[in-house]
Amino acid sequence: MRIFVTSTVLFFLVLQIGSAQINDMYITRWNEVYLLEEDVKVEEKFNYFLDGQWLPGMISITGGKENLLQEMRYNLQLDQLEVKVNSEVYTVDPSYVEDFHIEFGINKYIFQNINLEHFGIRKTNYVQVLAFEGNYTLYKYYNFKKSKSNFNPILQTGSKSDKIKMKKALGFSDGKSFIKLPKSSKKRKRILKRYGEFKSALNDSELDVSKENDLIALFTIVNNKINTNENIK
Fold first, then answer.
1. Helix axes of 212-227 and 196-203: crossing angle, nearest 10 degrees
2. CB-count burial class (<10 Å; 0-12, 13-18, 19+) for 26
3. Kindly report the CA angle at 231 between 229 and 232, in degrees rounded to 5?
4. Tell me, what DSSP letter sits at residue 137?
5. Residue 73: exposure state from Cβ atoms within 10 A (0-12, 13-18, ≥19)
6. Strand (E) or helix (H) holding 224
7. How far, in Å, CA of 209 to CA of 217, rounded?
8. Rounded Cα–Cα distance for residues 101 and 111 (Å)
9. Is the pTM of this model over 0.70?
10. What is d(CA 113, CA 92) in angstroms, rounded to the nearest whole number?
11. What whole-number distance in Å separates Cα of residue 86 and Cα of residue 84?
12. pLDDT at 19
């Protein structure tokens, strides 16, 4: 296993001696597999975070190891995982992350490290998992578009600040490929009905696949039927 030793990592380890933020048993593991980069210096207003705060969670890294953390968050806009150590913010090298989850109350956000650029989609690091445990996995991913200020000082018109718009997209995998789902219910059904399992489930239900929760329910139904070896026609 390659071991990365940088000044940042050493600084991180010094900070962690006697700290309760990360259990001591994870310090060595952390050093083995992570390259902690420089502090993240960003403007909070330009970044989107799950539930907008630091939350506890777990990171699964290459090789099967798992690290429990008390303060972590996923930066949606920059598509990076961040951890807080003694009030300092660090990014985690995505090349060593298999998946991670962040929990807040009844909400559990699960992300996998998938490079969708292999499927012609402009998305590089993490994709949110909405439904899994079967032959089909439903994903959600985020894209951002930044527009510059168009303020005209002479006419005093337009916006003085840059604007960032977030767009959500859905797709699924059958284990071989990634299929992007359009927004309309009609087009989604057309794509899903190419698969016999979904065609049967859609014919037997009144789920509105234009809604995220109904789509999650559909994938759960299909995967459960497959897992229990029920005949689907």
1. 120
2. middle
3. 115
4. E
5. buried
6. helix 212-227
7. 9
8. 6
9. yes
10. 12
11. 7
12. 33
Closest to 14 in 3D by CA, of 2, 26, 27, 23: 27
**Per-residue pLDDT at 129:** 94
pLDDT greater at residue 44 or residue 208: 208
Contact 92, 34 (CB under 8 A): yes
pLDDT at 32 over 80: no
If one compares 204 and 110, the residue with the highest pLDDT of the two is: 110
Q: Where are the domains of the chain?
A: 1-113
- The one-letter amino acid code at 5 reads V
Longest CA pairwise span in the chain (Å): 70
pLDDT tens for each residue of 118-128: 787 877 789 99
Cα–Cα distance measured from residue 197 to residue 174, given in angstroms and rounded to the nearest whole number: 12
